[in-house]
Write a structure and sequence with these properties.
heterodimer, A: about 525 residues, mainly alpha, 2 domains, two-stranded antiparallel sheet, 5 strands, B: about 425 residues, alpha/beta, Rossmann fold, 7-stranded mixed β-sheet, globular
Chain lengths: ~525, ~425
């Protein structure tokens, strides 16, 4: 942000306190606002800010919303589905023919955002004031001190107040008074904002800051902010590791049953993920066509659909192909690989070869801003929660239900289980269906963060096997630890070495690990039945 | 000489036999043209639209009477985003289908993979996408931008007052030849503008990569050093969707850290919610939003075509820069064939230089007489909430391409025309 925009903001805040009454705007200024030249536009914005009336604010808001229109004769704006003349503020009826909106670039947009934030610092709604104050972070200067002090005096909300105090400290950094500067520098040591750090950096330069004491204080404030920012960035890394881990876990959990527990090398596992992801796409289409009002909730409805679709495909695979190949891993591998190709082609035939668009529901867009430099995207937070609930569901099924009991019995000793009356064949089908269904849920989660296309599964098959093998074949707990471990290690390495190198290092680590410990992180103890 | 005549005779005989077999005199009256674009895999997001544009343009030319009175017959193959498969399919088009010309490729790695085939069989390729330069082939016409027609002006814009006077740059790309070479050129260019290595961060991700959390966190850190930061993205293919989704979710706004992309257009943004991305930039030689009669005709033609072909989401079909380049390329090839009165590759190449065409970008584009590249205007656009671009800067005249960038050492000695092979 350039310096004179700061002056303009100061002017604006000053005006808000005086609040002159004025109805019509200066036609010349409004004309200047629609000029093609950015400098002219910025000058007009400054002039309108100085006017400071609600009409001026409305014109600026319209410009920011792409709702300001101009022909050679007149300038008008759209607000709340009505059309007003920009100069007089009178409603125009009938509305003029549509022409192009007045376009702005990033430079003008930044200035506009700050100007509008300035208007909103006195908004009656505390949430609006908070957003306005936050968007001014790093954009303040000494000329704004009186205005900010006034706003701070009036401020009663406990959330907005500390932000305003930080803003005031940022503004005071350029106060000609050495004492005020020193106090501001010390105040800012409590900040978590990278913007504040940027401002403090400018105080280190003797050309900007003549006083040695202030420079030293700035240095120690930066050190304090840095140590906190280091913590925050470590936290962010751990979060992204958890997020990647949860995705790996969702992709691998199904395989942990089919391969880990049943011993079937299922190369079509990735395609079961794809079936789940396409289920989300189909359900989204149904909601768009029939329940447009409830569109935000299509994803919830897609959960059972994805599970059932993938489970059905899985059980069909088991009944028709895999059942005849138990105990012959090599043939199973080839047969399931063939099935994966069939499934990919089927998806191409049904939905086309291109990726399909699966949208994020509005409650999964955006993020929760914990600290100024730490934003946790909603979709990732929700997927971590989803992974945990799928895990809990699977644990409950395996440990608490009769089906789970039978599956464990069949895995440990098929002959004995058969002897005591467990229908082993049916259990095989059901267990495979369960594993496939869980894979479908994984695919549903993937549809929210990755691309949905016929060959999306190919990218996850290797990772899924890595997780299961690393965790220890036959162990659910192992899969959990392996997925989280892989996620966090990958993300830490990515931060340090970049995505391409990180992938190579992770593979190398796994090779060494498996050589040292072929049974994986956790091994089944006791007599393992083959 | 004798051998060549003999070969020609054999070819003619085979062709005659083939056309006889495939039924009737009509088949002999068509000219086969090959379309070589990925219709599946990671690049399908970008390339499928080019296939459709090529088919549409061919249908348009056929409806107007074809080329020299002959109808064009498209031969479509799918190299499936698989680089070696591109070479195989190109060989099939040239030696089995005997196409007169091929329109195709997007990524530079696919173009590099087919080059030996076109050289060996003396085929003709029209390549419609912006690329890294460092190449000048007799058998290829480049209708996309060279670095000085896209990358360099984009960086100039970021350095300018309206572009935010950036002082630090993140060069982010997919890990293959185009982003690596472009970033090498940009790094040298930024050095010439007084920007040090400490203020440049270079990052690469594999094709099809979808987890951009760490990279966006890194960009945030890098931009928090008190200097205006801008990101130059050469991410290609469907990775762009997760990248822009993450960018929107992480709350990194264009007014703070603008991202200028070289491979993201209207088509790539269709699957993305663009509201959080307002103000992000793209540098191209054409945008769907430019206003002129040619573009109105072009966009309407494509919308109608999409509806007629029942393409997915046809009612929101968009046009973009490589689609325009495909359209211009096919029309220029038609003009050259008509000038040469032949589809013979060498004669068409000779007739291509100096061809002009009134393009949807609103400019009359000229094929350079020598260097096989189009003279193109450069435009910088900002993303709007509706997924279209608002042109915030453009050149007054088309710019001549410099395939050999002066910012790579040793290029000053290279000739601005293809070497004889």
């Amino acid at each position: 942000m350039n310096t004179w925009m700061r002056h303009l903001l100061a002017l604006l805040l000053g005006c808000l306190i005086i609040l002159p009454a004025q109805a019509a705007l200066d036609a010349k200024v409004v004309r200047q606002l629609v000029d093609d030249d950015s400098d002219q536009k910025l000058a007009a914005i400054a002039a309108l800010v100085q006017v400071g009336t609600p009409e001026a604010a409305r014109v600026l808001q319209a410009l920011s919303n792409d709702a300001l229109y101009a022909t050679d004769q007149r300038v008008w704006l759209k607000a709340d589905d009505k059309v007003y003349d920009a100069t007089t503020g009178a409603e125009i009826n009938p509305a003029p023919d549509d022409v192009d909106t007045v376009s702005i670039n990033n430079r003008v947009r930044g200035a506009l955002d700050s100007a509008l934030s300035g208007f909103k610092l006195t908004d009656p709604d505390p949430a609006a004031r908070l957003a306005a104050a936050q968007s001014l972070q790093g954009d303040v200067s000494a000329v704004m001190i009186p205005a900010l002090t006034a706003a701070l005096k009036k401020e009663t909300d406990s959330k907005v107040k500390p932000v305003l105090e930080q803003l005031l400290a940022q503004a005071n950094l350029k106060n000609p008074d050495v004492k005020a500067r020193l106090a501001a520098v010390e105040d800012l040591s409590h900040s978590n904002s990278p913007n504040a750090r940027g401002l403090l950096l400018t105080r280190l330069d003797p050309a900007n800051e003549p006083d040695a004491k202030v420079r030293a204080a700035a240095q120690s404030s930066i050190a304090a902010i840095d140590s906190r920012l280091a913590w925050i960035s470590a936290l962010a890394n751990v979060f992204s590791g958890l997020s990647l881990g949860s995705i790996l876990l969702l992709a691998a959990l199904g395989l942990a049953i089919t391969y880990g527990v049943m011993g079937v090398i299922n190369m079509a596992h990735g395609e079961l993920l794809m079936v789940g992801a396409y289920s989300a796409y189909v359900v989204q289409g149904v909601f768009r066509a029939h329940f447009p009002g409830a569109q935000d909730w299509y994803l919830v409805a897609a959960v059972p659909v994805a599970f059932c679709a993938a489970a059905a495909v899985g059980m069909l695979m088991e009944r028709t192909v895999i059942r005849w190949l138990y105990g012959r891993p090599l043939e199973t591998l080839l047969a399931t690989w063939g099935i994966s190709l069939v499934l990919i082609q089927a998806a191409r035939a049904l939905f086309g070869a291109q990726n399909v668009e699966v949208s994020n529901p509005s409650w999964m867009s955006g993020g929760i801003e914990l600290l100024p430099s730490l934003t946790l995207p909603w979709n990732r937070v929700i997927i971590i929660g989803f992974a945990l609930s799928v895990l809990a569901l699977m644990w409950a099924i395996m440990q608490k239900t009769r089906l789970g009991l039978f599956v464990r019995a069949v895995t440990q000793n098929r002959a004995m289980a058969g002897c005591v009356g467990v229908p082993t064949r049916r259990i095989d089908t059901l267990a495979f269906g369960l594993g496939a269904g869980i894979a479908g849920l994984g695919g549903l989660a993937l549809s929210q963060i990755a691309n949905v296309g016929p060959d999306m599964g190919q990218g996850y098959i290797v990772d899924s096997f890595l997780v299961v093998v690393l965790g220890g074949v036959g162990q659910l707990a192992g899969a959990v630890w392996a997925a989280l471990g892989l996620g966090i290690v990958t993300k830490l390495l990515e931060g340090w070495a970049g995505a391409v190198i990180a992938k190579i290092i992770v593979l190398a680590i796994i090779i060494v690990f498996i050589q040292r410990r072929p049974q994986g992180l956790f091994a089944l103890k006791g007599r393992v039945v083959d | 000489m004798n051998r060549r005549t003999a070969l020609k005779l054999v070819t003619v005989c085979t062709l005659a036999a083939a056309s006889g077999l495939s039924g009737g005199a009509f088949a002999a009256d068509t000219i086969k043209v090959g379309i070589l674009h990925s219709l599946s895999g990671t690049m399908a997001i970008s390339e499928s639209a080019l296939e459709q544009t090529a088919l549409m343009t061919i249908a348009e030319i056929n409806a107007q009477g074809g080329v020299m009175g002959k109808q064009l017959e498209p031969v479509v193959v799918d190299p499936a985003s698989n680089w070696p498969l591109f070479a195989e399919k190109a060989r099939q088009l040239l030696s089995k289908d005997k196409v007169a010309v091929v329109f195709g490729c997007w990524t530079s790695v696919s173009r590099k993979s087919v080059l030996p085939v076109f050289r060996e069989l003396n085929g003709l390729l029209f390549y419609p996408v912006q690329y890294e330069g460092e190449e000048l082939e007799k058998n290829v016409f480049y209708t996309g931008a060279a670095p000085n027609q896209q990358a360099i002006p984009a960086v100039d814009y970021l350095l300018s007052k309206d572009g935010g006077e950036a002082k630090r740059f993140v060069l982010l790309g997919t890990d293959y030849v185009y982003p690596r070479t472009t970033n090498k050129i940009l790094r040298a260019y930024l050095h010439s503008k007084g920007i040090q290595d400490a203020d440049i961060m270079e990052e690469y991700t594999p094709f099809g990569y979808s987890d951009y959390q760490t990279i966006i966190a890194k960009i945030k850190d890098f931009s928090a050093q008190g200097k205006k930061t801008a990101v130059v993205s050469t991410i290609n293919g469907d990775s762009n969707v997760p990248f822009y989704k993450e960018l929107g979710n992480a709350g990194l706004k264009a007014t703070d850290v603008p991202v200028v992309a070289f491979s993201v257009g209207e088509e790539e943004l269709r699957g993305v919610d663009t509201k959080p991305l307002v103000g992000e930039l793209a540098a191209w030689n054409y945008f769907m939003s430019v206003k002129n009669p040619e573009n109105t005709k072009f966009t309407k033609m494509y919308r109608d075509w999409a509806k007629k072909q029942k393409l997915p989401n046809a009612d929101t079909a968009v046009t973009n820069d490589p689609m325009e380049a495909t359209y211009v390329g096919i029309h220029m090839w038609k003009q050259a064939v008509e000038k040469a009165h032949s589809t013979d590759v060498d004669k068409v190449i000779a007739a291509m230089g100096g061809q002009t065409f009134k393009a949807p970008s609103g400019f009359t584009l000229e094929m350079d007489p020598k260097n096989h590249h189009l003279h193109k205007p450069v435009m910088i656009g900002e993303v709007k909430a509706n997924g279209q671009f608002n042109v915030v800067w453009k050149t007054k005249e088309p710019v001549k391409a410099q395939p050999w960038s002066p910012f790579i050492a040793g290029n000053d000695k290279k000739k601005d025309e293809p070497e004889a092979n």
